[in-house]
Specification:
about 500 residues, alpha/beta, Rossmann fold, 2 domains, 3-stranded antiparallel beta sheet, about 45% helix
């Protein structure tokens, strides 16, 4: 590849183009060509985007190959913004622009009057700079207070006064975000939040490829790829996309939540801050804890007490996992353990990172966010535990509780203390091993396995637990005393000696 940085003037750029060292293309053509190259080489298109390989990404590829402007339509937390920002990887590494130009003018085809005047005066000596791909991406979060001047531009009287120009001069134009994204990608997040009259201002750029700044009979033919995001809930909650604008958007691509727990766990493992460093203990997250955290979001998305139109963001398990690990880290620091291993009960301590991630229906509002959150955790534990324990022989442990046994554990108990208490229950530690904990596992991991078994029994209503984490039988067996037997004639058979005489 030639040293593009050595090309610093218009004349040098023209010679490089004539020699085939530099290509002149529109942004849509540039993205299309680079996308085709990645498809041919088998290179990953959008690294870090999980779960869209067979759904969203093929549709997005089709839109880009068609040179469409597009919109990503989906609920919160579905990686819409990340997808938009990943489009930068489809741009060329560098692009030649007129030095000092506000709208990144093409040195060989300038559209602003200042650049045309400069090139007319300096000719081949006009300085050229190379703009990196990251600087060619412009993103705007739509809010109701955005004005047409913010998006497109306006007259700048201060610029006119300083330069001694008439207000009618093109040189007094102040460019908005859209012209400043010229020869790049312009992304608008949450499109329905834009006021209707601002959406009207986007008609021309989507259909005709130009914009007009207020007060000037001049149309700027911009070269820009435009992408939007929107949440369907916003169509009624905060605003809507006006129909003529929707009609001008080339492709509407629907995003979605992860289809299964495995994909969701991959996203959380990628995004959550679990590789703790510094002076804290080393972190090790058991797979069943990760599954429980992920299952909470799946349970929430189908719970009738939670508003499905708002969705349940993938940020819920990400934030919850970080909080779960922090609670395990706190316990490890208190008990001087070298490894912080989260337990299922730590998920309940992470409720503050869960309850703010969903909107509730009327029934949920009556019960309260914390009650709904605890119900979701218990349902998640029950679902995951069923997959681990349903095929195991659990009778020995359950009979121990049915015979009146109880086990008192605490959230801050060390792993050794948990295992000492667990060994009172014959078969409980062996059951943790059968559920997937290795025989040579360190005490913190084994304690997490014991905790998972007990919480699994509790969640599936095989045993009960009080708020102080005392585990006992769901309905303690009441065995008749000798006195009650001797006085209860109704318990005697219809013939034979009386019960009293029998015991006397």
């Amino acid at each position: 590849m030639p040293n593009l940085g050595a090309i610093t003037t218009l004349g040098e750029l023209q010679r490089a183009i004539d020699a085939g060292l530099v290509k002149r293309r529109s942004v849509h053509e540039e993205v299309r060509d680079n996308l085709i190259g990645k498809l041919r080489s088998g290179e990953p298109l959008f690294p870090g985007i999980v779960g869209y390989d067979d759904s969203v990404i093929p549709q997005l590829v089709n839109a880009l190959l068609s040179q469409h402007n597009f919109i990503l339509l989906g609920l919160r937390g579905q990686a819409k913004t990340r997808l938009l920002r990943a489009l930068v990887t489809l741009l060329d590494e560098q692009l030649p622009v007129v030095a000092g130009c506000e709208i990144n003018d093409d040195p060989l085809d300038p559209i602003c009057s200042a650049c045309r005047a400069r090139i007319g005066a300096e000719g081949d000596r006009t300085p050229v700079v190379w703009r990196p791909r990251e600087a060619r991406y412009v993103e705007k979060l739509a809010t109701p207070d955005v004005t047409i001047a913010d998006m497109v531009g306006d007259i700048d009287p201060i610029k006119a006064a300083r330069a001694g120009l008439e207000l009618s001069s093109e040189l007094t134009m102040h460019y908005g975000l859209l012209p400043r994204a010229n020869r790049g990608i312009f992304a608008i997040n949450e499109l329905p939040d834009l006021a209707g009259k601002i959406q009207v201002g986007l008609f021309n750029i989507l259909q005709e490829g130009d914009v007009q700044i207020k007060g000037y009979p001049v149309r700027l033919p911009l070269d820009v790829l435009i992408a939007f995001t929107a949440n369907p809930e916003d169509y009624t909650a905060r605003g809507k996309i006006i129909t003529p604008l929707k009609d001008r958007i080339g492709s509407e691509i629907r995003t979605h939540y992860p289809a299964g727990r495995t994909e969701a766990m991959m996203i959380t493992a990628q995004e959550a801050w679990t590789l703790r460093n510094g002076a804290g203990p080393r972190a090790e997250v058991p797979n069943f804890v990760a599954e429980v955290v992920e299952e909470i979001a799946f349970q929430a998305r189908q719970d009738r007490r939670i508003d499905k139109r708002s969705g349940v963001s993938q940020r819920l398990p990400i934030s919850a996992m970080e909080n779960v690990l922090s609670n395990a880290e706190r316990r490890a620091l208190m008990t001087n353990e070298d490894v912080a291993v989260p337990r299922v009960t730590d998920v309940y301590a992470a409720l503050p990172s869960i309850t703010g991630k969903f909107e509730m229906e009327y029934e949920g509002e009556l019960k309260g966010a914390e009650v709904v959150g605890r119900d979701l955790v218990r349902a998640a534990v029950a679902t995951v535990a069923d997959g681990y324990l349903s095929h195991l022989d659990t009778r020995q442990v359950l009979e121990w509780f049915d015979l009146g046994g109880s086990l008192q554990l605490g959230d801050t108990m060390s792993a050794d203390d948990v295992l000492t208490a667990a060994r009172q229950v014959q078969g409980l530690v062996d059951l943790a091993h059968a559920a997937g904990i290795p025989r040579n596992a360190a005490p913190p991991l084994l304690a997490a396995g014991v905790d998972f078994v007990l919480e699994g029994f509790y969640a599936t209503k095989k045993i009960s637990r009080n708020d102080e984490r005392g585990y006992h039988a769901t309905e303690p067996v009441r065995r008749p005393s000798r006195e009650s037997l001797t006085n209860d004639d109704s318990a005697m058979p219809s013939s034979g000696p009386s019960k009293k005489k029998y015991y006397n």
